[in-house]
Design goal:
The chain is an alpha+beta fold. It is 32% helix and 26% strand. It has two domains: 105 residues, Rieske Iron-sulfur Protein; 267 residues, Naphthalene 1,2-dioxygenase Alpha Subunit, Chain A, domain 1 (Alpha-Beta Complex), CATH 3.90.380. Bound molecules: FE2/S2 (inorganic) cluster. FE2/S2 (inorganic) cluster (FES) binds next to loops.
């Protein structure tokens, strides 16, 4: 809480205490005050298309089973038995009508209801109450363009209301076809020795690193013009810790790169009837290419070749910065594509995404390597004793007053406005969560 005060003072001066990126107390507080209190992405509906389908995911530090139950409803349930707490499900995905605990054999239906136990009459005299002894369930679950979000608090506003201006951006990115998007293959996951916020903050507005951290991509000519990426970038601050970077792709690569460069025959099948004029103009000139929804959901759609020398194709990646422990995250990389697109084109998009941002991709290696240094310095007795602060003082231009969309539009990406937006939301949740905890203790 003392750190919150220092973060608040620091942000007013364009400074950030370095220990926010790795600290036991901060990490625990984040789990309680952020991840247990707000909407968090857990899975995509296309991963569980049939009744009985399930995937095993995380919500904060907890493993959750995300199911489509026998009635077709989506459920997000804690993966721990109500008898003694053992993990009930040990498969990453599958199809099941029930989950049976490996310890004493209690069973649960795929909607979480308690379903039975061995030796029922002798041990318990009859069945237990199916709701009272069912798996714990996230009280709020909502789906937006196929993306399943859950909240552990009943107090959260409806998802679209919570996202506010960011929902407008979400519609422009993911709502272009009535068949929606689908996850291609399994999401990749790998451990990175960096704090979850390093990824989330970077994707919220850091185009500045591209010409240095990703220089090798430019030298290999894998991505044309990558070292000019920051100079043709803009920022969309959608408020509430949510923001996006846009790129003038037609200017950077070529006029055919409106709408991220989807080939015309596919672009013609997009249904733009629900979008407003500003959204359509944005997708033609400065499409959002990168972004973060607070706390740990990031988005990336950028044209890349699927092999050196090939014509770039857009790939879509969702990156979840899953907290594991202070200074350690598990990075989940989902690749998605519009469901109506032919398999051959989807495969190209998938390969393009893998070459750049798969676990062995050239961009991915660059980013994770530099982020790990932040977690190291954040834990240094030297930096802590000296109160080391990080620099958030780039020269700022104001927001564009002629912008007709929601939120704020910055014609340049310099200024670190969106990073500040991320940290202001972090601070708000950490302070409000503290008040709630205090209230609860009284
Ligand atoms: Fe699950 Fe006992 S812990 S049945």
């Amino acid at each position: 809480d003392n750190l919150c005060d220092r973060v608040e003072k620091g942000l007013d001066e364009g400074l950030l205490p370095v220990e926010v990126f790795r600290d036991d107390t901060v990490f625990r507080a984040e789990m309680e005050r952020i991840f247990a209190r707000t909407w968090v992405f857990v899975a995509h509906a296309s991963e569980i298309p049939n009744k009985g389908d399930f995937v095993l995911r995380r919500l904060g530090l907890d493993k959750v089973i995300v199911t489509r139950d026998d009635s077709g409803e989506i459920n997000v349930m804690l993966n721990h038995c109500r008898h003694r707490g053992t993990e009930v499900c040990h498969h990453d995905k599958g199809n099941a009508r029930t989950f049976k605990c490996p310890y004493h054999g209690w069973a649960y239906r795929n909607n979480g209801d308690w379903a039975g136990a061995p030796h029922l009459k002798d041990a318990y005299g009859g069945p237990l109450d199916k709701k009272e002894w069912g798996l714990l369930r996230a009280p709020r679950v909502e789906v937006l363009h196929g993306f399943i979000f859950a909240a552990l608090s009943d107090e959260v506003p409806p998802l679209r209301e919570h996202l506010g201006a960011a929902a407008w951006m979400f519609d422009a990115i993911f709502g272009l076809h009535p068949d929606g998007m689908k996850v291609i293959k399994e999401p990749e996951r790998f451990i990175v020795k960096a704090d979850w916020k390093s990824g989330a903050e970077n994707f919220s507005g850091d185009a500045y690193h591209v010409s240095t951290a990703h220089l090798s991509a430019s030298l290999s000519e894998f991505i044309p013009g990558v070292n000019q990426v920051s100079s043709v970038a803009c920022a969309y601050d959608m408020g509430n810790g949510n923001s996006f970077i846009g790129h003038a792709l037609p200017k950077l690569i070529g006029p055919e790169f409106e709408f991220w460069g989807y080939p015309k025959e596919y672009r013609d099948q997009f249904d733009l009837s629900s979008l407003d004029e500003t959204q359509i103009e944005m997708l033609k000139t400065l499409p959002p290419t990168i972004g973060t929804l607070f706390p740990n959901f990031s988005y990336l759609r950028f044209p890349q070749p699927d092999r050196p020398g090939a014509m770039p194709v857009p790939f879509t990646s969702i990156r979840v910065w899953q907290p594991v422990s202070p200074g350690v995250m598990e990075l989940w990389n989902y690749e998605l594509e519009y469901a109506f697109l032919p398999d051959e084109f989807v495969e190209k998009c998938y390969m393009a995404g893998q070459f750049g941002f798969g676990s062995g991709g050239i961009f991915e290696q660059d980013d994770t390597a530099v982020w790990e240094g932040i977690a190291k310095v954040a834990n240094s007795p030297w930096t802590r004793s000296k109160g080391m602060k990080l620099h958030y003082q780039q020269k700022r231009e104001g927001a564009d007053p002629t912008w007709k969309g929601p939120g704020l539009f910055y014609p340049a990406v310099y200024g670190e406005n969106c990073q500040e937006e991320f940290w202001r939301r972090w601070l708000k949740d950490m302070k409000e969560g503290k008040s709630e905890q205090n209230g609860g203790n009284q």
